[in-house]
Structure formats: structure tokens, C-alpha cells
Amino acid sequence: MDVRTLTSADTARWDAYVEAHPDATFFHRSGWARVIEDALRRPCHFLFAERNGEIRGVLPLVAVKSWLFGKSLI
After folding, report:
1. How much is the pTM?
2. How large is the greatest C-alpha to C-alpha distance in the chain, in angstroms?
3. Across all residues in the chain, what is the average pLDDT?
4. Res 53: pLDDT
5. Could you tell me which residues come within 8 angstroms of residue 48 by beta carbon, excluding any fewer than 6 positions away?
6. What is the per-residue pLDDT across 17-68, written as a single tens digit (0 to 9) for each?
7. Phi then psi dihedrals of residue 62, to 5 deg
8. Neighbouring residues of 10: CB distance < 8 A, sequence distance ≥ 6
């Protein structure tokens, strides 16, 4: 199993995986990273697990800073 960072070359496969997953929401779609980065100015780290060229799982993460909780990925 390989873990990779989402690139523009992988967005179609990412979104196809998300659309087929019964528990996914629109927050899991690849375009959500652009919304967060543009609107909230927060860096995103979208990761996915892949085996034999097939996506097995996605992990969309957003970096946040809080004076109360410090830095975290959510």
C-alpha cells in the first residue's frame, strides 16, 4: 500500500472513488481543497492510499491554528 499526496493528475480518480463510496460527502471531493485554501486561507493536505494503481482510501486534511488548541490537522 502506498500513501500519496493528491495532485491535479489524480483528481478524477479521487472524485470517482469518493462518488462511489457510500459514506462520502461533498467535503471529501478534491475541489473542496481549493475552496478551503481560497476562502479560508488554510493549507490543505489531501492524501490517498493506493494499491496496484487503485485508490483504497482518501484522507482530506486541513491545517488549522488556534490560540487555544495550537496547530492541528482536521
Report:
1. 0.89
2. 42
3. 96
4. 94
5. 3, 4, 6, 10, 14, 17, 55, 56, 57, 58, 59
6. 999 999 999 999 999 999 999 999 999 999 999 999 999 999 999 999 999 9
7. -125, 130
8. 4, 30, 48
